[in-house]
Amino acid sequence: MAKRNTEVTEPARKPSRIQVENRKRILEAALELFSKHGFRGTTLDQIASACGMHKPNLIYYYESKEAIHVDLLNTLMTEWLSPLNALDPDGDPMEEMLRYIRRKMEMSRLYPRESRLFANEIVQGAPRMLPHLEATLKPLFDQQCGIVNTWMHAGKLATMHPAHLIFSIWAVTQHYADFDAQISVLLPGDDKRARGAEQFVEEMFRKLLSP
Fold first, then answer.
1. Cβ atoms within 10 A of the Cβ of 7, count?
2. pTM value?
3. What confidence score (pLDDT) does residue 10 get?
4. Which CATH number does 15-63 carry?
5. Which pLDDT belongs to residue 192?
6. Kind and range of the H or E element at 76?
7. For the residues 31-39, what does the mean pLDDT come to?
8. Residue 78: which pLDDT band, with cuts at 50, 70 and 90?
């Protein structure tokens, strides 16, 4: 008669409120440093100092600088892809595209550090994000390009290469985050600059997309 396994596996403990808050402090400090200095230019000592922790305490939560960076990038990818994921194949094509562009402009305005973090990773060849890009971004990108292509073939949007259209939207909208230091010198005045940029970009793509 086979012996029954009576061992009980204890459920994983949920992190305490303090643990959750400390992780948030670490990620916030790391985001600020990574967005300014890049992955290579940031150290664990700098992150520990910025979040008010001793280095051994920080390592209790994250064993390495890379682990912090990957956690930030994974969180960012979920947020960054949400506007593209929200394209509704049954919606009005022009309004769906303009809503996507507005959301991308809003994200560049509200999350410039996250945009620079992502851009720095891609410029370096995506050493920590490549599997995520292949497994998550590629299928979504192909699916949404198919939706845009269907709208174009139906005569509801001007005909062009859907992938290059999305690349262009990314390039234009994220420019306002990644090159904010340059823009703030050339066009001073935050509120006025933001409104002007959003109106210009929306009108430019409306003209481009009109059949």
1. 5
2. 0.83
3. 52
4. 1.10.10.60
5. 73
6. helix 65-85
7. 92
8. confident
Q: Tell me the C-alpha distance between 20 and 15, whole Å.
A: 6
Confidence (pLDDT) at 12: 58
Distance separating alpha carbons of residues 140 and 100, to the nearest angstrom: 14
pLDDT at 4: 52
Q: CA–CA separation, 138 vs 81, rounded Å?
A: 11
Place of tokens 């209790």: 60
Two tokens at 118?
A: 């992502």
Taking the CA atoms of the chain, what radius of gyration do you get in angstroms?
Answer: 22
Report the pLDDT value the prediction gives residue 77, as an integer from 0 to 100: 84
Class level of CATH domain 69-209: mainly alpha
Selection from 28, 55, 31 nearest residue 121 by Cα: 31
| Residue 11, pLDDT score | 53
Tokens of 84: 């593209």
CA distance 102 to 194: 12
Cα–Cα distance between 44 and 69 in angstroms, integer?
A: 11
Alpha-carbon distance of 167 to 174, in angstroms, equals 11
C-alpha span between 66 and 123 (Å, rounded):
17
Structure tokens at 183: 């823009």
**DSSP summary character for residue 2:** P
3-class DSSP assignment, residue 127: coil
Every domain of the chain and the residues it spans: 15-63, 69-209
Q: What tokens appear for 191 in the block?
A: 């509120």
